[in-house]
Amino acid sequence: MARFYLSAEFWRPQRVLVTGGAGFLGSAVVDRLRELTPRSLTIPRSSEYDLRERAAIDRLLNETKPSLIIHLAAVCGGIGANRASPGRFFYENAVMGIQLMEAARIHGAEKFVQIGTVCAYPKFTPIPFKEADLWSGYPEETNAPYGLAKKMLLVQAQAYRAQYGFNAIYVLPANLYGPRDHFDLENSHVIPALIRKFSDAIRSGRRQVEIWGTGEPSREFLYVDDAAEGILLAAEHYNSSEPINLGNGQEVKINDLVRTVSRLLEYKGTWVWNASKPDGQPRRSLDTRRAAEAFGFHAKTGLEAGLQKTIAWLHATLDHVSPPS
Fold this sequence. Notes:
The protein is an alpha/beta fold. The protein is built from eleven helices and eleven strands. The chain starts with 7 loop residues before the first helix and ends in a 7-residue tail after the last helix.
């Protein structure tokens, strides 16, 4: 099997634009990119370039003239955030991606890397999720507006390749976690929410933690640095209209995840499931063979090792924060 790696020969001539480059996943991608020393690296801030506005996008591309764009900017969150803002999640994710890809084509970008979401898969997709199953049903209801907005960008990428020969690719990561994630309980995903809840309980002396759902669903989790590596490998080596999964191939029940996080934090109390809250999609696990074959991607970080790194990062941050009342 051919070996794939990130090569200086590819990256040094590139003028790279990373939207969302100051965010959770984006900062990991940018850290890795800086090691590759591209010709230029632009990380636009929303305060200066509002990607919902076409004029701001055109101004950004005129000023930076990127040869390669990695579109990571997104409005996203956990089940609670999706339920609270379905319209915003649909509109802002769709309008940012659609306008940016169109502008990139017109401005002559050589490659466009669109980051999708596992939420785009149908609610009852057979395990493991194969890329060919993306259109076999409707997404899980609480995530559907976000997932469908992102999936429309796959349609756009394929249409632009067919009509204009535009080299746009679509990468689908599993649920991400790691340092610099969002740990506020209003918007966080399951891993940062669990770590924060148990950590806060320990710091405040509470002996019981409430957790949403039943614990029966499963998820596949990809450490953020592994996701960044996979995205850049795809940017360098993948040039196909077909979407491509990134994951680690390990399906974990939420119940087992809770026990693991509790053990790593040495939490001595108990937890109670709030079954009145939604579980979300029943199961998630990705078929990652396409990425392995196309650009040699294999996740390097096991779940427990990644959780330990994430916990250490949060605790270093919490040293500067008072425990909750």
